[in-house]
């Protein structure tokens, strides 16, 4: 019997939640079929989760009505459906008021029982409803299920379908489907026909490979402990190794479900308080598990069924977790999901050696630290927390039980993960890999390589562009502050003015040293000193007078804000994304570029850390550029070896190329070759990484020597062929750790260029002061660097052995070099040095479905290169952990001749790019060519997105005397956009969009038009009506007469509070439907008397309420005259 949970039955808060196929096929449950149930095949295309490992490895058997279905497709389906059924039973259990809770959890259940989350549960819901974007699908889902955008999260967004986490109550969902059955053929009914869904149950919250990340981590217990295993009892036994426990730390990343912030606001709670209560909840469950197991030791038959509660009624974790529960629901024994071999049962063994053991993992709970992620005051959408697992003070073998009950016991850590996953407000749980430094082993060569690629040519330095006036943040393991490349006058006297949260902008180099997380110490040959020097080092023996040094940085005029991440030699630790950004940003007065020469290995899978970084950059810190080393795990052509956070959507991931002259060894081929260790893409969801490359192999950098004061480079020209050392204060180092600060320094020069007025608001004029000072967004800096990058023409070289693995040219966009190597002279106009012209768009807003167009004409008369380069970059909202399609707001870039004779697509493709948030076109053009660059908001998960654009080449004004966008901003209201879009092709929207940045659903006006047989459509207009009865046209259509026959077109607009008039000027073939705030104003198919010149008047109040009437009526819905 194939067990499923039918759609209607799932929504009922009654005892009979799930049914069998036979029940459904007989029409027993409101006539709904199993097609609405989310399948494992569909789920695996959306998110990468631990359930995939379980089903693929077939560790389970399913015992149902005495039949064993191990190893069959039916058996795998049974595992999936059994897990879902467990989720539905849990929903029933909690809806009936039996959600078992911690006695210590005082605040958690206050928000959960509040009006915002009372009896509500998270569902994973997918819709293929035929509308142009995920945002429009979501609006309809929210309306149908009577919930708000705050209670939802998009986890997958493609043109054909979108998937969301929706938090809603059972009775609301039930009512929606009852109404859809009663009113077949309406929009809600049509919407629900295209819906599949399932509960967000425990194992669906666990990131893929969760058990193996702990069990296969050889350093999980070393160097603190020597571990030996006893598989016979399914438990890791451990013995102590004293002296290193302070260095051991692991962490878990937890995301909370949508709507958690609303619950917290209702009770004036904090992220920390809810995290504390989640941990208390799990600890109470651990105690219940121990109590139940104590009882099971006396009644062994109960253990085989997994039945167990403590004396106070709290459910044991074995019973609560789907893959260890032996029953389909609490108190029932109808179905059992069992491991095929108990000795290899990862989850069951975790409980036996963890929560169910006599120690109950108590020491682990005692030592847990909580680090909130996001806050109620943040605009960032990610709300969650990080749990830091610490090692106990173990000094001798007699105290082995202390370590046994701590997080050093892998089974305790796994038990904790299981407990977190069953908590109803937890969305995902992820194990964090250790941070690794991207360092495999002078700076003068990287300077000219990145500025011009011409030997010893530094045209930006010649123009005074060396990063002065800029602050670059470096987060790393310590900085030797008295090295001659950082030394300041009166070093001791002024030093205290930079520690912690103190800033001293008068200092020569280091203006802030945040030691609040670590110890302000550096180790010999320390990584942080190398990295900081490559960014901005500048030689000075006395801290005042500067001189050119062999190890000068790429931006020697810049200053450093340093965040110390290491205590002594214990390895760098993660302070948390929010703390890191808050520190270096300093409320907008600090650094706007951050370098991170470290990362974690996720094999390109989108992680909770990426959610945090992408969230921060797309909201609060949009003017920050995050530059990250790609990692050193590319040896052997290892695909998807890109490390985190270089693999995030909004970071700039940097690979390592070779250097030149004294900075290469005899068999190394130089700047056109990539170092073989440089990590590669693509990411798991198919995005191109790394983004860019720069010299990283054998870079001469400042060297830390804490035993000396004022150490510096020697007097002789350094040469890596003879020695890695250059005096006591400089040294050759290698890795993407070194290429990343090269790019960060280059970005500092670009930022100086914009702030010093080398550009107007939209054109760069190439001379200091020729334009106006601009605060460039991080996405614009990223676009500029990528736009001018030049592809390497060599190959991949094994270093230091000199083997060439790929001597044929490597190509841009190949997931080896990305856009190519940094070249500033090809990126920015510089009078007297190049002849390029550049148009820029800095962090411009666009709404879902709109298009921006920019028209150009090619002018080669000044002898410039005939290549045109166009790069689009946007900071995308965060995706879901383990997403398979991580781009939420899909913008499309293409370039077309004005006469329509040719269309070019980005990133070397012959079609739209649906995967990347970076899109570039490079092409050769001819004299006089007129072309158009188009940015199309093709498919958004939200209503609004900002982007930056760089267009460079031999450009002149177009024939219409303006290279313009079809979008223009309202000067009076920066939150408002007027979007004018052509209707020149069949898949484009109808004319004009008018939007506010943050649109309430109650202000959303939507028009859906179906054309007739001849492609004709109704003529209409939307006007704003002022108190003096004058009217302003907001939108109208259609302008074009060439639409596809019998096709649907959409128009959506967010309306500000005022009066409006919608008019039908001419009713042609086809039909139309107008809705406002989810209410249908008019449906032409249901109005037989529909004639031309019909008018509807409505008003939007400041509180979002709307009033609607048809011409001829004199009162609104509340009887008020309007």
Automatic annotation (TrEMBL):
It catalyses: Hydrolysis of proteins with broad specificity for peptide bonds, and a preference for a large uncharged residue in P1. Hydrolyzes peptide amides. Residues 960-982 are annotated as: Disordered. The active site is at residues 476, 527, 737. CDD domains: Peptidases_S8_Kp43_protease. Keywords: Hydrolase, Protease, Serine protease, Signal. Residues 1-16 form the signal peptide. Residues 963-973 have a biased composition (Low complexity). Belongs to the peptidase S8 family. This is subtilisin. It comes from Cyclotella cryptica. The lineage of its organism: Eukaryota, Sar, Stramenopiles, Ochrophyta, Bacillariophyta.
């Amino acid at each position: 019997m194939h067990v499923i949970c039918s759609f209607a039955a799932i929504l009922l808060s009654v005892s009979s939640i799930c049914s069998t196929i036979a029940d459904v096929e007989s029409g027993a449950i409101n006539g709904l079929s199993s097609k609405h149930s989310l399948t494992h095949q569909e789920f695996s295309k959306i998110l990468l989760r631990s359930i995939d490992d379980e089903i693929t490895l077939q560790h389970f058997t399913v015992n149902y009505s005495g039949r064993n279905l191990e190893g069959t497709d039916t058996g795998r389906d049974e595992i999936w459906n059994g897990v879902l059924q467990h989720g539905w039973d849990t929903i029933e259990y909690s809806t009936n008021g039996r959600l078992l809770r911690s006695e210590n959890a005082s605040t958690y259940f206050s928000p959960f029982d509040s009006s915002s989350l009372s009896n509500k549960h998270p569902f994973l819901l997918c819709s293929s409803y035929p509308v142009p974007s995920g945002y429009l699908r979501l609006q309809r889902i929210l309306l149908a299920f009577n919930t708000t955008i705050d209670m939802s999260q998009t986890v997958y967004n493609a043109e054909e379908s979108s998937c969301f986490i929706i938090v809603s109550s059972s009775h609301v969902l039930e009512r929606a489907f009852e109404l859809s059955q009663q009113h077949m053929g309406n929009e809600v009914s049509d919407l629900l026909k295209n819906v599949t869904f399932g509960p967000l149950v425990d194992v669906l919250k666990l990131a893929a490979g969760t058990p193996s990340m702990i069990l296969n981590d050889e350093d999980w217990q070393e160097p603190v402990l020597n571990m030996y295993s006893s598989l016979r009892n399914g438990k890791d036994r451990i013995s102590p190794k004293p002296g290193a426990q302070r260095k051991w730390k692991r962490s878990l990343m937890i995301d909370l479900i949508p709507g958690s912030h609303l619950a917290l606001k209702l009770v004036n709670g904090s992220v920390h308080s809810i995290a504390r209560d989640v941990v208390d909840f799990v600890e109470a469950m651990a105690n219940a598990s121990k109590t139940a197991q104590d009882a099971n030791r006396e009644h062994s038959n109960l253990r085989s069924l997994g039945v167990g509660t403590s004396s106070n009624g709290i459910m044991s974790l074995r019973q609560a977790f789907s893959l260890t529960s032996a029953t389909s629901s609490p108190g029932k024994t109808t179905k059992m999901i069992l491991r095929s071999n108990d000795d290899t049962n990862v989850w069951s063994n975790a409980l036996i050696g963890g929560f169910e053991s006599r120690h109950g993992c108590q020491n682990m709970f005692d030592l847990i630290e909580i680090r909130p992620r996001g806050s109620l005051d943040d605009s960032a959408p990610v709300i969650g927390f990080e749990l830091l697992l610490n090692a106990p003070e173990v000094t001798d073998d007699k105290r082995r039980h202390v370590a046994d009950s701590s997080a050093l016991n892998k089974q305790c850590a796994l038990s904790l993960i299981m407990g977190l996953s069953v908590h109803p407000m937890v969305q995902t749980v992820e194990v964090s890999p250790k941070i690794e430094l991207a360092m495999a082993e002078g700076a003068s060569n990287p300077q000219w390589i990145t500025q011009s690629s011409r030997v010893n040519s530094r045209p930006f330095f010649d123009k005074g562009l060396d990063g002065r006036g800029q602050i670059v943040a470096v987060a790393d393991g310590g900085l030797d502050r008295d090295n001659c490349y950082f030394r300041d006058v009166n070093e001791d006297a002024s030093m205290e003015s930079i520690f912690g949260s103190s800033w001293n902008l008068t200092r020569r180099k280091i203006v802030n040293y945040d030691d609040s997380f670590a110890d302000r110490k550096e180790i010999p040959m320390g990584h942080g000193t190398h990295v900081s020097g490559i960014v901005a080092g500048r030689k000075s023996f006395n801290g005042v007078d500067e001189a050119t040094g062999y190890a000068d940085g790429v931006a020697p005029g810049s200053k450093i804000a340093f965040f110390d991440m290491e205590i002594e030699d214990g390895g760098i630790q993660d302070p948390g994304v929010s703390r890191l950004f808050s520190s270096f940003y300093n409320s907008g007065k600090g650094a706007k570029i951050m370098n991170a020469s470290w990362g974690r290995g996720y094999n390109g899978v989108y992680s909770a850390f990426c959610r945090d970084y992408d969230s921060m950059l797309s909201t609060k810190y949009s003017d920050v550029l995050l530059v990250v080393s790609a990692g050193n795990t590319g040896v052997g052509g290892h695909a998807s070896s890109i490390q985190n956070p270089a693999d995030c959507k909004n970071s700039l991931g940097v690979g390592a190329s070779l250097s030149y002259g004294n900075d290469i060894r005899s068999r190394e081929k130089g700047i056109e070759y990539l170092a073989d260790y440089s990590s590669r893409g693509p990411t798991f969801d198919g995005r191109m990484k790394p983004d860019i490359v720069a010299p990283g192999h054998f870079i001469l950098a400042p060297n830390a020597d804490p035993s000396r004061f004022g150490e510096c480079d020697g007097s002789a020209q350094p040469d890596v062929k003879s020695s890695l050392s250059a005096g006591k204060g400089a040294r050759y180092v290698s890795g993407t750790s070194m290429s990343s600060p090269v790019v960060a320094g280059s970005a500092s020069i670009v930022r100086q260029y914009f702030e010093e007025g080398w550009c107007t608001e939209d054109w760069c004029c190439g001379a200091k002061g020729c334009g106006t000072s601009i605060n460039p967004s991080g996405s614009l800096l990223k676009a500029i660097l990528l736009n001018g990058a030049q592809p390497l023409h060599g190959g991949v070289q094994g270093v230091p052995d000199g083997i060439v693995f790929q001597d044929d040219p490597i190509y841009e966009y190949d997931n080896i070099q990305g856009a190519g190597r940094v070249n500033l002279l090809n990126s920015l106009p510089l009078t007297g040095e190049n002849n390029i012209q550049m148009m820029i768009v800095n962090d411009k807003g666009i709404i879902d479905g709109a298009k921006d167009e920019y028209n150009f004409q090619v002018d080669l008369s000044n002898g410039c290169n005939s290549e045109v380069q166009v790069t689009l970059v946007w900071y995308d909202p965060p995706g879901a952990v383990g997403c398979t399609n991580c781009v939420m707001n899909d913008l499309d870039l293409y370039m077309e001749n004005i006469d329509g004779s040719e269309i070019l697509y980005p990133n070397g493709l012959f079609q739209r790019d649906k995967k990347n948030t970076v899109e570039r076109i490079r092409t050769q053009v001819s004299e006089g060519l007129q072309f158009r660059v188009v940015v199309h908001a093709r498919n958004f998960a939200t209503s609004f997105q900002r982007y930056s654009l760089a267009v460079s080449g031999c450009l002149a004004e177009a024939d219409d005397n303006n290279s313009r966008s079809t979008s223009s901003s309202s000067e009076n209201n920066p939150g408002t956009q007027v979007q004018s879009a052509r209707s020149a092709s069949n898949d484009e929207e109808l004319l004009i969009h008018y939007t506010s940045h943050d649109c309430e659903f109650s202000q959303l006006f939507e028009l859906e038009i179906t054309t007739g047989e001849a492609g004709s459509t109704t003529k209409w207009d939307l006007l704003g009506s002022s108190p003096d009865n004058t009217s302003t046209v907001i939108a109208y259509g259609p302008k074009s007469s060439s639409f596809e026959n019998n096709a649907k077109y959409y128009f959506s607009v967010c309306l500000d509070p005022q009066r409006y008039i919608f008019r039908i000027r001419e009713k042609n073939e086809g039909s139309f439907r107008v809705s406002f705030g989810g209410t249908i104003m008019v449906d032409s198919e249901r109005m037989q008397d529909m004639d031309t010149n019909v008018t509807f008047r409505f008003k939007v109040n400041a509180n979002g309420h709307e009033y609607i009437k048809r011409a001829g009526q004199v009162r609104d819905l509340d009887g008020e005259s309007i």
